[in-house]
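The material for today's practical consists of a large collection of protein records. An example says more than a description, so a record of this kind follows:
***
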Amino acid sequence: MSKTPTSAAQAASATAHSCIPWQTSTDCQTVSASESASFASELRSVQSANDATATTARPDAACMTPNEMIRYSQELFDGGEISSKQHLMLLAACLVFGSIDEDGIYTPPSDAEIERFNNTPMDFLQYSQDRIDFLESIGDTVSAESGYEEWKELLLILKGL
């Protein structure tokens, strides 16, 4: 993410003091009021365009770590784009399970396994499609408990449709 060289407050200050915003106060140059106003107007226009781009850009759910998905899912839930059930479905996809040996003894994942899993990108679009395909294969597309409709809707949201 690129950083804007100046804030709106700095731009206003620059306009009032006739300084170039990203330069120190000792590097002030003489500019006319119309040049300052033009610069401030241009800066606001660029910032508005950046804000508009930031609000419409969606992360790529086809290549996202579980840690990233946890944050993104929370954003979607907080923004009212997904239900609490869909939020929990995505969080469950980010869980690390241990293993059960042939004697039925459970071994929890190590800290290193958890760290590796949480920071390894996965395809959440494919994961969602796999859940849909599985539910269709067992004929469980009608019951509310299956989450079939939620997975279908979630897949569309993750695709940005």
Observations:
- The chain has a mean pLDDT of 78.
- The first strand starts at residue 99 and ends at 100.
- The first helix runs from residue 8 to 17.
- The beta strands are 99-100, 106-107.
